Amino acid sequence: MRKQLLFSVIVLLLVSKISYGQLLNTTIDSTDNETIWQLAKYDTKQTLKSVGHAFTQPLRWNGKDFTKLGILIGGTAAMTFADEPLQEFIQRQAGDFPRVVRDFGWYFGSPQNYFMANAGLYGFGLFTKNEKIRKTSVLIISSSITSGLIQTFTKNAIGRARPSREAGHLEFSSFANESSFRSFPSGHTVLSVTMAHAIAKQFENTWVKAGIYTIGAIPPISRLIDDAHWFTDIAFSTVLSIIVVDGIDKFLFEEKAYDYPQKQKTISWNLKFAPNQVGIVGTF
């Protein structure tokens, strides 16, 4: 059954890639005279430059950036008070949550399936010489590498106990080398939100964006249902992914790495922290 489900997910991803390719403008300009190998080398270079820029960006931060970091950390800490009540509420509803959706969330957020999907998307863009799809793939891959490395180190360094361990939301064991102490942040959430946000940025239609974000939200929700993460694990990972994608997207545009017009900004994300309100707000 699981193999059949995995096959169905892969087929769904392939179909969505084809539809995505049809939605984007396939007009070829400057890449007409370049070989597939030349394009692949160029994209690899842009990926490495993007990752390098992302990790050195804190050296260029100003006061406003450090304030945002403080809000993210402070907001996450404040929301931990809701972790156990939310976990108890979600587990009471877990039996009513469709199993197929839970399985889709797990498979889609798993690194091996995630990067296989990315490879298929990039391959389509590369061999059709579609610059928009190539750029989107570079954005996804470089953002995934950046946020993935951050969450891997943070997950081990913090060593937060998973809800399924039944030890409480404030039990930690740094570098414990145990899966049960790798709750914060959520790797499934980092990958799924990174892909969803990177793809959604390529569309102007609000309903299309909403649909893409809805699909991207399935893995985080399924991880909560599976009792694998606390709510703050998911919330922090979501914000981290959005920040990384937006930062790298801005870098690629400013570098003029890919030659196509920038779409008018239709949604902006901001951290909001108040006595009775903590979270990330999207303004359409």
UniProtKB/TrEMBL annotation:
Domain of life according to the entry: Bacteria
- Residue stretches making up the Phosphatidic acid phosphatase type 2/haloperoxidase domain: 140-245
Which Pfam families does the UniProt entry name for this protein?
Answer: PAP2
Task: Quote the Gene3D superfamilies the UniProt record gives.
Answer: Phosphatidic acid phosphatase type 2/haloperoxidase
The protein here is known as: PAP2 superfamily protein
